[in-house]
């Protein structure tokens, strides 16, 4: 059967590419689907991945794709998966794409990542250029500059403020209309971190580079960059539709090595935790899940 695969990997980010590489090296017939919607596509540089610090995300991806393509059992398909169904009698999965094609596989790895939702829609104009969500990824580049932290959730605000203060103590926290407990404000003020609980009216800047933040009162505060605490969501419901179990905070329940609660369905990277991850950690997740897939296939066929 031409379209029958050992494993189909859905998602071509670091987790999916890493898994596909290992499965290709394990002589498995693999199809990796990627439609180019990876979250870091708006980022100018990626940091923290050994030997590739500061690389452009697309360049990183292109290098990985070239490596994966060198394995003859691997196919990389520029198609969008719209549905997955299970053939219970044959114990196979049917993967349907937006161009009306169906692919059949024994195993599926979900590596579709996550997407952001911002408290202020205008943030997206600056996201990846002067506003970021990960201090470890972009804190060094913003060190000792006037920074903003935009976070509506008090827990997120406290966590991120403590981290960001390590790179720059010229920091103002914006809650966009949400109040903070007095003890938290006192803690921030002791570090000379101003807290603004006013609603943000508008962000000002050009070409994605933040210059100032305008509050509802009319006050304009100069800031040249900073961090935001978005909420995150999976861009599809594949795992839920396949009856994979999710815990009460939205994280997929796995065995720690990528296996979900449904036999034959694996998950890796940001899609597993429904939260952000670094390139190097997502790639490690993909490697771990691929090793589980290969071992399971090996034991089933031996």
TrEMBL record:
Matching Gene3D superfamilies: FAD/NAD(P)-binding domain
Pfam annotation, one family: Pyr_redox_2
GO molecular function: oxidoreductase activity
Domain FAD/NAD(P)-binding: 5-146, 179-285
Swiss-Prot/TrEMBL keywords: Flavoprotein, Oxidoreductase
Domain of life: Bacteria
Name under which the protein is recorded: Thioredoxin reductase
Source species: Ureibacillus sinduriensis BLB-1 = JCM 15800
Lineage: Bacteria, Bacillati, Bacillota, Bacilli, Bacillales
């Amino acid at each position: 059967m031409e379209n029958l695969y050992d494993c189909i990997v859905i998602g071509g980010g670091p987790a999916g590419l890493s898994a596909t590489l290992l499965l290709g090296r394990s002589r498995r017939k693999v199809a990796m689907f990627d439609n180019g919607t990876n979250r870091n596509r708006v980022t100018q540089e990626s940091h923290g991945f050994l030997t590739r610090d500061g690389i452009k995300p697309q360049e990183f991806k292109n290098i990985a794709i070239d490596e994966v393509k060198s394995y003859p059992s691997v196919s990389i398909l520029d198609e969008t998966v719209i549905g997955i169904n299970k053939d219970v009698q044959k114990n196979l999965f049917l993967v349907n794409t937006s161009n009306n094609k169906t692919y059949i596989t024994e195993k599926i790895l979900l590596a579709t990542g996550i997407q952001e939702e911002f408290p202020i829609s205008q943030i997206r104009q600056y996201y990846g250029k002067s506003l970021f969500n990960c201090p470890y990824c972009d804190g060094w580049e913003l060190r000792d500059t006037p920074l903003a932290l935009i976070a509506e959730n008090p827990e997120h605000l406290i966590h991120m403020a403590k981290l960001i203060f390590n790179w720059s103590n010229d920091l103002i926290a914006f809650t966009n209309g949400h109040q903070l407990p007095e003890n938290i404000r006192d803690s921030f003020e002791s570090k000379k971190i101003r807290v603004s609980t006013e609603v943000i009216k508008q962000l000002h800047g050009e070409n994605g580079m933040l210059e100032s933040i305008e509050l509802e009162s009319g006050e304009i505060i100069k800031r040249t960059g900073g961090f935001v605490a978005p909420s995150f969501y999976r861009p599809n419901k594949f795992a839920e539709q396949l009856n994979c179990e999710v815990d009460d905070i939205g994280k997929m329940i796995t065995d720690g090595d990528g296996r979900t609660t449904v036999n034959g369905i694996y998950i890796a990277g940001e899609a597993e935790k429904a939260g952000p991850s670094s390139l190097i950690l997502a790639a490690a997740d993909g490697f771990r899940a691929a090793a589980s897939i290969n071992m399971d296939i090996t034991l089933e066929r031996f």
